[in-house]
């Protein structure tokens, strides 16, 4: 059954919109296993990375079949659908839109029928040269006399573009075509794709988004985060290297390098995007967040009675702050995790409740207390302003805000949708002005140096552009001007 109007009601409170991740990807090659169900549970573990649409492609060795729709993994699939997806090889995806609008045609995996067979592809990240690639795909298709695929119609995401480019090499094995195409892509891409028999994975030369390989008995699994390997019982083998392309099947792992590695992993994965039980570059995300909390306590001490997190991503930071400061830790806010993930649009009365639809204060815990409220990041400031007001109304005598990331001042072009640059509160205001704007008694942001040290990843191997404006991959004009809708804008002109 189609999911309502296809729009999830994230905007219960239009001003309360945190950073949105690009996507989660998952792939499995495992003859004898129920690969569609493994992929379903893998996507479930990655649901936090994308909640607008979900899809699974499966192959039985003869043909590739794709099922996808708008909504959460649990809304798109049921037992009967999963039972019908039979095979030994599968690729799955859960999406939040970065390039391309949130519509069915942009859901993934994207599918393409080529002269060599079927091709299904899932992508986490965001390309920065989509406009150039669109022209290149059209030119190559014309030169090779390739007809437009029905899959191209209505699709305006950069992932469909990668599939189109792969199809412009009909005479080459997919591994060779992918090696050539990956070298032409710029920006962030962690790819998982398949033909009838083989699972492939590739990661951009900077390795901006994570991608890991796991072993499942005699089979293979590839996933955005190792937490998704754990949930299906796969054992972590290694990360896909930046600039590496791998093929996985009964012949084992075949690896190709399409570009030299220039590692620049996303620092924000540690702050907010990844699950706490994930490891990045060998470092636990949970441990990094706890360490950031300890550092916040040392750098921004305050006399207070209770440390509370804004659940859930700030919970480890609050634990670290409490541990280091000796101030007790407690739950002052209860989060209604699922309210923003429904197809039911709230009524006007409900909308007026705003942030209360998502968080409810525990009056008994906070009344009369001087609070330290730890949050992971501030994007627009509206959420923190509403929370500070709510805590005061519930009886808090003081609210001191501590933020587990530096001020977000620049937009991300590599797969995270923060807000437009004009809406980023830290781009326009000083720290003192932000404190006054959200109505806190004091505020403290972890410094970029301290956050970097807490991650244990050397600064020159990280992307930190949303904090310092230094973009590791150049941003062309079309991407910086039109952002996620660049292919809607340039598509028609380029003959899409
Ligand atoms: S700009 Fe920020 S969110 Fe985007 S990849 Fe770089 S560190 Fe991550």
TrEMBL record:
Domain of life: Bacteria
Function recorded in the entry: Catalyzes the formation of phosphoribosylamine from phosphoribosylpyrophosphate (PRPP) and glutamine.
A single MF term (Gene Ontology): magnesium ion binding
Record keyword Metal-binding present: yes
Sites where the protein binds [4Fe-4S] cluster: 266, 412, 463, 466
Reactions this protein catalyses: 5-phospho-beta-D-ribosylamine + L-glutamate + diphosphate = 5-phospho-alpha-D-ribose 1-diphosphate + L-glutamine + H2O
Pathway: Purine metabolism; IMP biosynthesis via de novo pathway; N(1)-(5-phospho-D-ribosyl)glycinamide from 5-phospho-alpha-D-ribose 1-diphosphate: step 1/2
Entry-linked PROSITE patterns: GATASE_TYPE_2
Every Glutamine amidotransferase type-2 domain range: 23-251
Cofactor(s) this protein requires: [4Fe-4S] cluster; Mg(2+)
GO biological process, one term: purine nucleobase biosynthetic process
Binding of Mg(2+), residues: 313, 375-376
Cofactor note: Binds 1 [4Fe-4S] cluster per subunit.
Name of the featured protein: Amidophosphoribosyltransferase
Organism whose genome encodes this protein: Actinopolymorpha singaporensis
PANTHER family hit by this protein: AMIDOPHOSPHORIBOSYLTRANSFERASE (PTHR11907)
Disulfide bond keyword on record: no
Keywords: 4Fe-4S, Glutamine amidotransferase, Glycosyltransferase, Iron, Iron-sulfur, Magnesium, Metal-binding, Purine biosynthesis, Transferase
């Amino acid at each position: 059954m189609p999911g309502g109007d296809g729009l999830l009601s994230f905007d219960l409170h239009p001003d309360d919109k945190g950073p949105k991740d690009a996507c989660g990807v998952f792939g499995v090659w495992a003859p004898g296993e129920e690969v569609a169900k493994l992929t379903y549970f893998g996507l479930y573990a990655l649901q936090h990375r994308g909640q607008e649409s979900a899809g699974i492609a499966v192959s039985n060795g003869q043909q590739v079949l794709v099922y996808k729709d708008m909504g959460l993994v649990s809304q798109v699939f049921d037992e009967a659908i999963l039972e019908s997806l039979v095979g030994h090889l599968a690729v799955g995806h859960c999406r939040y839109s970065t390039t391309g609008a949130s519509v069915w045609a942009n859901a993934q995996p994207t599918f393409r029928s080529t002269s060599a067979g079927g091709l299904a592809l899932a992508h986490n990240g965001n390309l920065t040269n989509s406009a150039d690639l669109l022209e290149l795909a059209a030119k190559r298709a014309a030169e090779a006399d390739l007809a437009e695929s029905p899959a191209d119609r209505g699709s305006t995401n950069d992932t469909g573009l990668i599939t189109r480019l792969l199809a412009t090499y009909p005479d080459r094995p997919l591994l060779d075509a992918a090696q050539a195409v990956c070298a032409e892509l710029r920006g962030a891409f962690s790819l998982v794709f398949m033909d009838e028999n083989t699972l492939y994975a590739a990661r951009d030369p900077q390795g901006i988004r994570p991608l890991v390989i796991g072993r499942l008995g005699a089979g293979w699994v590839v996933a955005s985060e190792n937490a998704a390997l754990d949930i299906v019982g796969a054992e972590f083998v290694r990360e896909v290297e930046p600039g590496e392309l791998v093929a996985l099947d009964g012949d084992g792992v075949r690896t190709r390098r399409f570009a030299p590695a220039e590692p620049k992993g996303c620092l924000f994965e540690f702050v907010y995007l990844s699950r706490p039980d994930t490891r990045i570059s060998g470092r636990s995300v949970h441990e990094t967040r706890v360490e950031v909390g300890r550092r916040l306590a040392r750098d921004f001490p305050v006399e207070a009675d209770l440390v509370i997190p804004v659940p859930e991503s700030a919970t480890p930071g609050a634990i670290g702050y409490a541990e280091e400061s000796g101030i007790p830790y407690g739950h002052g806010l209860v989060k209604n995790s699922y309210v923003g993930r429904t197809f039911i649009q709230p009524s006007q009365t409900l909308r007026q409740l705003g942030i209360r639809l998502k968080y409810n204060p525990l009056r008994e815990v906070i009344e009369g207390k001087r609070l330290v409220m730890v949050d992971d990041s501030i994007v627009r400031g509206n959420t923190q302003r509403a929370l500070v007001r709510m805590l005061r109304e519930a009886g808090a005598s003081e609210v001191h805000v501590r933020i587990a990331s530096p001020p977000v001042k620049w937009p991300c072009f590599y797969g995270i949708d923060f807000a437009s640059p004009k809406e980023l509160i830290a781009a326009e205001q000083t720290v003192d002005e932000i404190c006054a704007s959200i109505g806190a008694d004091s505020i403290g942001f972890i410094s970029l140096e301290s956050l970097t040290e807490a991650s244990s990843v050397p600064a020159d191997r990280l992307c930190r552009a949303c904090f310092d404006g230094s973009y590791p991959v150049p941003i062309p004009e079309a991407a910086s001007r039109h952002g996620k809708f660049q292919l809607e804008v340039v598509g028609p002109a380029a003959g899409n």
